[in-house]
Structures are given as structure tokens and as C-alpha cells.
Specification:
- This protein is mainly beta and 284 residues long.
- The chain has helices at 4-17, 30-33, 248-260; strands spanning 21-27, 34-38, 43-46, 51-56, 62-66, 69-80, 89-96, 104-110, 119-125, 134-136, 147-153, 157-162, 165-171, 187-194, 214-228, 262-265.
- The strands form two sheets. Strands 1, 3, 4, 6, 11, 12, 13 and 15 form an eight-stranded antiparallel beta sheet that branches. Strands 2-5-14-7-8-9-10-16 form an eight-stranded antiparallel beta sheet.
Length: 284
């Protein structure tokens, strides 16, 4: 069986031959790294490009996307979420490709009534297929200060982390017939929008527009990644994130989070999957 390193390296050689990759390690400036794509002025870049805010009111939400597309990498962003009564709102931060068979790696923050915890919703799509949700409550108030939300993505695994603590690992299960996102470059997206038909307590709690505008803030974007670009050069095959996996310390941190803060795991939902859990769940 090929090793994780050889799989990653073979893929990179193929892409380099096509002239499609170059190395990127950027401590970001929002002016140079992102475009505000919708919201009619509700998204703003401030402080000489060091801060970005998205706002939502009854008329519209807002969103942005990265100028670059990435194929594998370690991507960090600091977010401070909508404070107070944010019920009905969703702050989405994710990687996604385009087309009907898209790949996607999701963080979604589902708003709450004041004093109740945010729900952090995660999902992974490959070839247009998702339904791989895990949800968590956080061990801090994500509205009081900025916290770092990270995605590590290589050919063998996707690791979701919060402030450096892994909360979820999605492993490559192609050997079991499960597709894995490893061939389609993805952009970074974020949006703040109203989803009060489902976001808070299954839609039972609606958005209180007297609290609008709702605002989420972003800073300290950093990407160590392969960037899809014509005429580019190879990613460094020695980049640690190409073969990175959880060591024993981080495996214990992951177990701690999942035992204490996970509130939903599709891999244990036998009512949803009465014919048997998805095959990748045996790797969890």
C-alpha cells in the first residue's frame, strides 16, 4: 500500500506537470487576499486591511471570498462571533470548489439566545455529497474575543481545530469506496446570513431584528498552502502539513473535546442511517 507521503507527492507531481501549483505562505491582509462579494456595503475591510467585518440586517447579510484557490494547506482565521441574542443567524466559514460535484469543508456557527452556547456545526462534502455533520458546543464564549479556527487539509485527512485544539478529524477512506476531497482546488468563503427557519433550536427560535445589525469580525488570516495558479511552481514536498497527522497529545485533546463538547455525530446516528452507518465511520 502506498504511504500517505507517496500519495501526496504523486498528486503534487501530477499537478506540477500541469503547471498549476505554487507555494504560498501568507500572513494575510484582507485587501490583498479577499474580495467582499455581496451585501451592498455590509461587509467592510478596516484598519488598513487588518480587520474585516460582516453584518446582517433584515434586508440582507454579507459575505466574502478569497482571491486565490487552494489545494491542500493549513489555513487559520480568527473570528469573533455575533454577541448577545444571535438566534436565527449563521456565520459560515468554509472552503469550497464549484460545480455540481463540488468539494467543501465547513465551519458554521449557529446563533443562540443570550446566555446559551453557540453551536459549532462542521461538515465535509466530496463530489457533491455531504451529510457528514458533527456539532459541538465550545468551552468558551466565542463572542467575547477572537479565537482561531483552523483547517488542515492534505491527501490523507482533514483536521478541524479551535485555538490549536483538534475537534474533528475526517480521514481519507477511499479504500472503503468513500470519495475524498483531494483533486479540486477550493476558495475560502465566509458569510453572515439569516437562517431562522432551522438554525436555532430547529427553527423554533426566530431572529429578533430589534437586535440588528448583527456583526461578526475577522482578523489574522494565515495560509500555508498550495495555490492553484497557471504557470506556478511545485509545492515543497517537505512541507509538514502535506503529511501531518495527530500525535498522541493531540489525539488525547481530540478525545477530550469529543467526549465533553460534541453534541451530534452522524457516525452514531443509527436512526438516520438504519441500513448501516456510512463506511468512513469505522475509521473514526
Amino acid at each position: 500500500m502506498a504511504s500517505p507521503f507517496s500519495n501526496a507527492f504523486s498528486l503534487l507531481l501530477t499537478l506540477v506537470f500541469a503547471g498549476s501549483l505554487m507555494v504560498a505562505s501568507s500572513a494575510g491582509n484582507f485587501y490583498s487576499d479577499f474580495d467582499i462579494t455581496w451585501g451592498d456595503g455590509r461587509g467592510k475591510i478596516l484598519n488598513n486591511g487588518e480587520l474585516l467585518t460582516l453584518s446582517l440586517d433584515k434586508a440582507s447579510g454579507s459575505g466574502f471570498q478569497s482571491k486565490k484557490e487552494y489545494l491542500f494547506g493549513k489555513i487559520d482565521m480568527q473570528l469573533k462571533l455575533v454577541p448577545g441574542n444571535s438566534a436565527g443567524t449563521v456565520t459560515a466559514y468554509y472552503l469550497s470548489s464549484k460545480g455540481s460535484t463540488w468539494d467543501e469543508i465547513d465551519f458554521e456557527f449557529l446563533g443562540n439566545l443570550s446566555g446559551q452556547p453557540y453551536t459549532l456545526h462542521t461538515n465535509v462534502f466530496s463530489q457533491g455529497k455531504g451529510n457528514r455533520e458533527q456539532q459541538f458546543h465550545l468551552w468558551f464564549d466565542p463572542t467575547e474575543d477572537f479565537h482561531t479556527y483552523s483547517i488542515l487539509w492534505n491527501s490523507q485527512r482533514i483536521i478541524f481545530s479551535v485555538d490549536g485544539t483538534p475537534i474533528r478529524e475526517f480521514k481519507n477512506a477511499e479504500s472503503l469506496g468513500v470519495s475524498f476531497p483531494k483533486n479540486q482546488p477550493m476558495r475560502i468563503y465566509s458569510s453572515l446570513w439569516n437562517a431562522d427557519d432551522w438554525a436555532t433550536q430547529g427553527g423554533r427560535v426566530k431572529t429578533d431584528w430589534s437586535n440588528a445589525p448583527f456583526t461578526a469580525s475577522y482578523r489574522n488570516f494565515n495560509a500555508k498552502a498550495c495555490v492553484s495558479s497557471s504557470g506556478g511552481t511545485s509545492c515543497d514536498s517537505k512541507s509538514s502539513w502535506l503529511t501531518e497527522k495527530l500525535d498522541e497529545t493531540n489525539q488525547n485533546k481530540l478525545k477530550w473535546v469529543q467526549e465533553n463538547y460534541m453534541i451530534y455525530n452522524y457516525c452514531t446516528d443509527t436512526q438516520r442511517f438504519p441500513q448501516g452507518l456510512p463506511p468512513e465511520c469505522q475509521l473514526s
